[in-house]
Amino acid sequence: MAVTSLTHRLVGIIDYLSTGNIINVTDLSKEFSISQRQIQKDIELFKDIYEIESLGNQNYRIKDGFRVHSASNDNLDIALALLKSLQHSAMPQMNRYIDPSIPEIKEYKNMFILDIAYEDITHTDEFYKLIKAIKSQESCSFYYTKKDGSSKQVYVHPYRLANFSNFWYLLAYDVESKKLKSYHMNSIDKVVFAGENYISNIAVEKEIEDTFAKFNSVWFDGNPKNVNL
Predict the structure, then answer these.
(1) 102-148 per-position pLDDT tens digit
(2) Do 167 and 184 meet the contact criterion of CB atoms below 8 Å apart?
(3) Residue 39 and residue 33: Cα distance in Å, rounded?
(4) What are the backbone angles phi and psi of residue 72, rounded to the nearest 5°?
(5) H or E element in which residue 41 lies
(6) DSSP bridge partners of 168
(7) Residue 126: how many CB atoms within 10 A of its CB?
(8) Which end of the chain has the least Cβ crowding within 10 Å, N or C?
(9) Can you give the pTM of this predicted structure?
């Protein structure tokens, strides 16, 4: 049996819990074709959200008096189908990374037709690396090609991946200039993790929030300014 996707597995466990069933680690391991250790990790994850009690012998259930509120299966299928359609239209270059995590819903496969004309991501591997760096708050370096064709290696603390006027940008704190800057995604190449984590700066986070509330350009040099793309 093929290993069940993360999304299907977690939804399945929630469905069991929401109906008051007792779940067993060994049984779930066989059903989803995954290790008992991973199932145990899934349950520990849900313990941070729901009141789950251990009954011994690897058995768990929601505590009496508590309930898991979940969408109906039909609503969940619609949400997943829409999410997949959005992803395919907006970021088709990332299909190989995202598709395995979003199940195909046959009943709704061709229901949504979307035309989101985002800029193509030419360096999908670099885009994925930056997603990982932002998630783990890891400093990184990359080569950035300017409009005049010159290239420079920069060291940054990456904060956001943003799409404005259909163009993709990285918002990052430039270590050398000590400023929040934006970098056109398709001008970024050879991303390398620095092997060290940075602490999210409250001032930088506030600058991102305040600046984008005031103007719709994404170029930073310490002061906001309009840029015609």
Answers:
(1) 766 666 666 777 777 788 888 889 999 999 999 999 999 999 999 89
(2) yes
(3) 10
(4) -65, 160
(5) helix 36-47
(6) 163
(7) 19
(8) N
(9) 0.59
